[in-house]
Design a protein that fits this description.
Elements (H helix, E strand, L loop, with lengths): L10 H12 L6 H9 L7 H13 L4 E3 L7 E3 L6 E5 L5 E4 L6 H9 L10 E4 L2 H11 L2
Parallel strand pairs: 3-5
Antiparallel strand pairs: 1-2, 3-4
Bound molecules: zinc ion (ZN) (2 copies).
């Protein structure tokens, strides 16, 4: 595993990173804790939380923060887009080309040097759609 110079990957962090890399569900700290605990039974939620924050700060992982919702974490740091279910909060990746043109458009419209952008779509996940269908039949 490649190690970033500014951050030593402790065993704990390495396991957190491995577990996070296994899923595409963008888990919350609690969910990561549940996964990591199976391999490190003595680890605490606080430690997992602190490590996630540190790793997000150093750019090893991505932290998804949207006002009023629980923070979620993502092992994919390359630019990509997300869709969030408005009903259950589930977050998935949307595999479309990153729209770099938006950066130029934003730069033209502002005084900022634009470094990047984040797009999060909102919608209804398949499971919530099914549930809605099921309940509307009654
Ligand atoms: Zn949903
Ligand atoms: Zn993602």
């Amino acid at each position: 595993m490649e190690q970033l110079p500014n951050m030593r990957l402790t065993t704990q962090r390495q396991i957190i990173l491995e577990e996070l890399g296994k899923v595409t569900s963008h888990p919350t700290a609690n969910e990561v804790y549940d996964m990591v605990r199976k391999r490190l039974p003595r680890i605490g939620l606080g430690t997992v939380y602190r490590n996630l924050e540190l790793m997000a700060d150093s750019g090893i992982i991505l932290k998804l923060e949207v006002g009023g919702t629980q923070k979620r974490f993502d092992a994919t740091v390359a630019p990509h887009y997300h869709v969030r279910c408005t009903f259950c909060g589930k977050v998935d990746d949307i595999d479309i080309e990153v729209q770099n043109k938006i950066n130029q458009i934003a730069e033209t419209a502002s005084d900022y040097m634009i470094l990047g952008h984040h797009i999060e779509f909102s919608g209804m996940c398949p499971r919530c759609s099914e549930e809605k269908k099921a309940t509307s039949l009654h």
